[in-house]
Amino acid sequence: MQWTNLSERNVYENRWFRVNLADVALPDGRHLDHYVIRMRPVAVATAVNEANEVLLLWRHRFITDSWGWELAAGVVEDGEDIEAAAAREMEEETGWRPGPLHPLLSVEPSNGLTDARHHLYWSESATYTGHPQDDFESSRREWIPLKLIPDLIARGEVPAANMAAGLLMLHHLRLG
Description:
Elements: E1 4-13, E2 17-25, E3 31-39, E4 42-47, E5 53-61, E6 66-70, E7 72-75, H1 82-94, E8 96-98, E9 101-107, E10 118-123, E11 126-128, E12 140-145, H2 149-154, H3 161-175
Parallel strand pairs: 4-10
Antiparallel strand pairs: 1-2, 2-3, 4-7, 5-6, 5-12, 8-11, 9-10
């Protein structure tokens, strides 16, 4: 039951994404016009300290008018290494530079509409470098006990699926 993308044409583009209209052939031979959002990869990073606390950002998302805990994240610049982008985003948004990063997981948060792929990393250490350059990204940055993550997610305090998946994987890796 595979759908086949026969062609796409661009209908809108900016520096963050492209909106294309695809001509899709369905398995039964019918055709479907389907909008596709093409995006650059997203790099995500956090750290866990010796006390098993994870570095999170508390932020508002105007699109959904929701508040929640997130990890530092941003788009990978053209020609930039994904892991380097994750480290850069973490330092810019939190003021903490991660130690060596370890791959956590990669997810496609909305693969019925977009090709966005989010690459999540974590570190076992971080060094405070000062007030975050991009402090407008969040209201506060805090070290939250990793053991509290499942309850935060259950209460809806981690609304983004990519963040919830990464935090649950990190919880599993560190605490079992």
